[in-house]
Amino acid sequence: MMDVAKRNNVKITGQGKTAIIFGHGFGCDQLVWNEVIDQFKIDYKVITFDYVGSGQSDKTAYSQERYSDLYGYKQDLLDVCDSLEDDSFIFVGHSVSSMIGMLASIERPELFSKLVMIGPSPHYLNEPGYQGGFDKSDIIELLDMMEVNYKEWAKYLAPVVMSNEDRPELAENFEQLLCSNDPKIARQFAEVTFTSDMRSELSKLTVPTLIMQTQFDAIAPLEVGQYVHDHIANSRLVIMKAMGHNPHISDAAETATVIKEYLAG
Amino acid sequence: MEEQLNFAPLGYLVMDQELKIIEMNRTMIEMSHLVSVPTHMHDLLTIASRVYFQTYFIPAIITHGAVSEMFLRLKGPDGPIPVLMNTRKRNELFECAFMQVPIRNEYENELLNAKREAEQISQATAEANSELQLLLDEVKYKQEELNIMNGRLREMTNTDVLTGLKNRRYLEEFLPGLIAESNLTLLIIDIDFFKRINDTFGHHAGDVVLKELAEVLTRTIGDDGFAARLGGEEFVAVLPIVELSEAQKIAEKIRFNVEMHDWPYQPITVSIGVASNSDCNSFPDLLNEADTALYNSKNAGRNRVSVSS
Questions:
Q1: Structural domains in chain B?
Q2: Which residues of A, range 1-60, sit inside 8 Å of B by Cβ?
Q3: How many angstroms separate the CA of residue A250 from the nearest CA in chain B?
Q4: Which SUPFAM superfamilies would you find in this protein's record (chain A) (predicted)?
C-alpha cells in the first residue's frame, strides 16, 4: 500500500472542519505557504504537501515517465485528497499548481468546492494570437540559468523550506539533498511547466474559481490572467496590489485576505 | 552620488522592496547601454532572467537579507550581458552590485556543454551496456538451447534408429570405461537363420522381427542390465554382474523367452555367447571372447547358450 502522507510529505494543521489544500509552484515546496496558512488555521483544516521531486517528498517515488506532463502532478494531488477522510476540498494553487488543480477538478468536479489560482498561466509560450510571454529561446535560457545558479539557489532556498533557523544543520542537510538529487528533477519540472499547453482545458472547468493576478508578474502577466478569466465560466478575477509572481511570500497578508473574502462571498 | 561610487568599476543600483529602481551609478547605466534610468528592476533583465529573478530572488532576500553571486543576464543592444549580482538588504532597501562576467560566462558555458556531453556519453554508455547485457542474456539462452540440442543429438547418435536400443557407437564409447571400472558380463545374441526371414518375407518382415526381439530383450533383462544392437541381427546384453552362472541363467531366460514368443511370420530362436571381463580388460577382447562362445552355440546346433571358457 502506497503511503501518500510520506511520499508527498503531507502536513495537516488547523482547527476548522472545511478542508483547504495548498499546492506549491515550480521551484519551491509547501513551506512557501507558511505565512499564508497561519491566517486559515482557526477556521479551516489546512493541508499542505510537496509534489514528488520537490521539498521533502520521497524522491525515490519520482519517475521521468509519470512526471513527464502535468497529469502526473494532478495524480499526486488526487492521491493526497484520496488519502484523507474529507470528501470536499478547497484548492489553492500557485502558478503551475493552479493548472494542476484545474486538471484534478475537471476529472473529479465533486471533490472540489472552490478553486483559487494565484498567478495562473495555461501556456507560457507565445503563439499566433496568444501572448504567453515567452519564446522558446527564453525557456532554454531559463533552464541554462537554473543550471548555472543551481547551487546558489539551493543554498538560499534551503533555510526557507526548512524554516528552522534555530536548527541550521537541518537546512544544511537539506541543501546537500537538494544539490545532489534535484537538478534533473527541477529541470524536468521546469520543462513540463513551461512547455505545457492547458488552454483547451480551461473551458472544461465547472468548479467556481478565483483568479489572483499581481502587478508586474513576469511569469504570468495580466493579459494571461485575463485570458484565464475569459475562458473559465464560473470565475472571478482579482487584481492584487502585490507585485511579482510570489504574493504568497512577499504579501502573505493581502493574499490571505483576498482568498478569505472570496471564500466568504 | 559620490563621484567615486558613480564611476566605480562595478554597477551599483538601489531598489525598494517592490523592485522599483531608486538610483543607479554611471557604470551601471553604461553597462546596460541605457539612455535613462529605468523604473523597474525587470526592465533591466532578459525575459528568462526576469522569471529566474522573480522565482528565486524574493524568497532568498527575505530569508537571508542578502543574495550573492546570482547569475543573471541584462538586456543589451547586442544581446544579453552576463552579470553576477550581489544584493544586501539595508534600511528596507535592496542595494545591488553588478559585475560583468563575459569571459567567465564563456568558460562556464563550455563547462556546461562539457558536462552535458559527458552526461550524454555516460547515458550512451549505459544504453550500450544494457544492450550488451541483453545480447549476453540472449547468448546465454542460445547456449542453453544448444546444450539441450546437443544432448538430444548425442542421444540420437547413440541410439539405434530401428529398435530404439543403444547402438554399437554407444558401446564403443562407454563400455571401455565401464570395463576398466568394474566387472561385467557381455552376452552376444544372434538370431538363427535370420537371412531366411528376409529372403522369404522381405526386409520389412526382418525389421519387424528385429524390433520385436528388442522388446523381448528389454523386457527379459529388466533391471539386470541393458540391451544394445551391434548391427544386422546381432544384439548384446550388458550385465553388471560377476557370477558367470548368474549371467548364464539370464542368457537362458532370454533364449527361452525368444523361443516361446509368439512371432508373426515364423518361430524364431537365438544363439547366445557369454563372456565376462574377469580375465580380459578391453572391449574388443571381451567382444571376441563372447563371439567365440556364440560361434560354439551356432556350431552346437543353435538355440542355445555357450559360456566362454
A1: 3-100 (3.30.450.20), 168-307 (3.30.70.270)
A2: 26-28, 32
A3: 7
A4: alpha/beta-Hydrolases
